[in-house]
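Hi X.,

You mentioned you wanted examples for the new student's onboarding notes, showing what a folding record looks like when two proteins sit in one file. Here is a clean example. The first protein comes first, with its sequence line followed by its structure tokens.
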Amino acid sequence: MNAHTPTADRTATEPLTFTARQFGSVGEMFAFGAGRSGGHAFLNERFLGEIGKRMLDERQRLVLVGVADQDGSPVAAFAFQQRRKFGVATLEAVDFGIVDYFAPAYFGNTALSAADTAKLWRAVTKAVPGVHAVAFKKMPRLLYDRPHALSGAAFLKPMGTSATTLRLRGPGRPSVVPEKMSLAREVRRKSKKLEKIGPLTFEEARTNAEVDEAMATMVAFRTARFAELGRHDALLDPRVVAFYRSLADRDGDVPLARMFTLRTGAVPVAVIYGISHGDVFTLIVPSITTCREAQSGSPGLVGLFKTLQWCRDQDFAVFDLSVGTLGYKSRFDAETNELFEYQQALTPLGLPVVAEARLRRWVRHLAVRYPQVRSTLEGFGRKGRSSAPAAAKTNGDGGN
């Protein structure tokens, strides 16, 4: 999805009207936005196509909506999943624990006004009859300084969490030199620790055989690590593993996903999985060994730093450390961006869905304000986690 439409060039006083319709396939939605910018790693044709193939069950479906203005010019594109919650049909942002952002594509230059955004949103919800509630979360106000279709929305609520982004280059800002970052000295020290175990190497998986080996190592690391922590991880779900493996396939010219392995001698100590889209590299899954000797050398931190250096060398503009406020992310001198959510009952039957989501938001804000509450809630979560479905965000570990 690349360029701009007449909507972006209209005067501020000229009223806008919108019409929305559903698409029958991912390909049809991307044909609607062909030649226009607005997509990102999680609103990518291949990414959504693989979700449709691998993540949906018989009770779910992708709902893809395009919005045009009164001239018929494409304005925006949305990707949702429809499922049943509390027995009623609900429209939600595509998530499955593997989507970091909800940022619907927008084909204009500047964000729509709050009033026009409200009109656009009404058109979107009317295009999907039969649902009783709609909900989304993890929405930044801007994504990499660019507006999306709901950037101007006045109805959003803060989630109480944020995403972390490091700008490597751009207009009006000096290019980042990783070797001069405050973190670089510690990385050098930790690297020396790892080198005592064996020669330190950092390599990208460039063949499908290497991808398979890296995937197996990553899954083994995450399984052992999260069992040790008493927490659930999305990579325990075979569907998620197959999904990530498909994105890293090396049969094409440029894979959507990239995998890197940090080794001491012949032994892997960290695997980094990320998605490259345009000039943005997004961290998806960091994983580290459970070997105590290697952990003392912070292989996750060293691996992430070397991934950052690779991004600089490949001329990426953004190194996105993604959703979450884990301590290791702040050490990259990056900026944080607040994330928002929204729930709306479209009929009275949707009210329980909205009430449950608002309760979750209240608990989340309480946990941020009172860390002891978070510890108590996590303790309860560990007791019942073994039977829970995969839903944990996969980049929640890797700072050691």
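Then the second protein repeats the pattern, sequence line and then tokens:
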Amino acid sequence: MPFAATAIKAAQSSAQTVLQRRAIQCSFSSVFHIRNANGGKMTQESREAERIFTRAVAWPLGVMGLLGGAAFLKREFIDDS
């Protein structure tokens, strides 16, 4: 029955691809929808989706916010020109 195992593996990798794509392209609500899709139970897939979202969206957004805040503070309070 190697065909059955291959079909299951292909389905899992296909589902993983969809979850990764959704985590990267999604909004906050989509990530939390994935988290709560199993009755609130955290699954490996939901943890993976949150990790991808955090690395691809939340961290860069936070860094940009901090850099923007630092540039604003420097312009307002440090530069006397």
